[in-house]
């Protein structure tokens, strides 16, 4: 390695850019060798016999946030050689002893300010795998004043179901949806899963102000108190994407779709037929968006009792990905709480703070390159994007996968915990635990 770098010295001035590139490569290779040796030489810590949680990595998250090249390089080597898969079984075992689970994960030490207690939030989580990721998502958002509904897919593994039911058993403000669906990609079942949770969330005594829906590969970019503060500023308005549909997207609800067997991971998929649908009921004008939202309680109570909404839901049964036009259209209906007038310009995914998704075809045009990986043109974020994610302005992001980059998730947890404490100390002198 030293010989290669030495041979670079005689290169003349016209080749300085190439020289700098090669010197940078030398540094990265040396770091790779150094940290490969460290990681291979140090044995992993012994697992405790009586307590097993998810795996934590030896990384400096402050240095990752500051884009320190040495620490970012270390994260890349961990990702390549040291990723440990967190098994659903270990969460099943831990939640079999609720006091131990609550104490070991710090739920008994969560501080709630007066401001948070007066502005509770609700969550609908539609999930199907990776139980530890679900627990970590809840923990990152957790406040005893909030309420969390989990809808698990009927097709999920028995171990996963047992793990999330353990979460609901141990945490008093977490519950399982009373009605559950077998969820198929782009079908009405995905929308119904959220609707089941929304209906259940209206039942408890918790008078939450806003509800947010999430999936298992989402993660927050704001602490609970930061999020509460920003939601207060909405003053009853809803936050979601709602745009006029392109000609291509109109095909999704202009033609009848049938759910048919698929030969890949989704098992079943809505397939377009040649049969045209009737226009939407009640003269509804169609808008498109995505499946994710931040909705006021008044809006949810309205749609839960509205005959127009029930007719629109029935009409949407045979459309493709109805959750991507259902909410975007309903929020434009005249007279709904938090209405977005039909005359108002499009609200795109970049304008809505609800969800940050980095599309591969927009990288290096709108977004910096993805430092993790891609699935179906969507970036699975990596550790090098930590600072960008926290400062871009959105409240949540998708996608995260501990098997692709566990360091980013660990560092987000650390930064959000730090920010929660910092904002609470400014907001209120009162702290209520448990």
Automatic annotation (TrEMBL):
It comes from the Eukaryota. Pathway: Protein modification; protein glycosylation. It is found in: Golgi apparatus membrane. Its main location: Golgi. Keywords: Glycoprotein, Glycosyltransferase, Membrane, Signal-anchor, Transferase, Transmembrane, Transmembrane helix. It is a single-pass type II membrane protein. GO terms for molecular function: acetylglucosaminyltransferase activity. One of its GO terms (cellular component) is Golgi membrane. InterPro entries: Glyco_trans_14 (IPR003406). Belongs to the glycosyltransferase 14 family. This is Beta-1,3-galactosyl-O-glycosyl-glycoprotein beta-1,6-N-acetylglucosaminyltransferase 4-like. It comes from Cottoperca gobio. The lineage of its organism: Eukaryota, Metazoa, Chordata, Craniata, Vertebrata.
